[in-house]
Amino acid sequence: MVRLGNAIVSICRFNTGGQLVVCCLICGFGQNVYAQDTATGNSEAKAVYAASQTADRVSSVKSDVAESQSARQKKKGFVTIATIGASPLTVSADTEPQRVVEHVISYWRGLFARVLPDRPDLIVVPEACDRPRGLSSEKTNEYYSVRKDQVRDFFAQVARENRCYIVYSAKRAMGDGTWRNSSVLIDRKGNVAGIYNKNHPTIGEIDQRILCGKDAPVIECDFGRVAMAICFDLNFDKLRLKYVKAKPDLIVFSSMYHGGLMQQYWAYSCRCHFVGAIAGRDKPSQIRNPLGNVIASNTNYFDFAVATVNLDCELVHLDGNWNRLRAMKAKYGPKVKISDPGLLGSVLIASEHETIDIDTMIEEFELERLDDYMARSLAHRLKPGNMEP
Question: Where in the chain are the domains?
Answer without folding.
Answer: 2-70, 78-310, 313-381
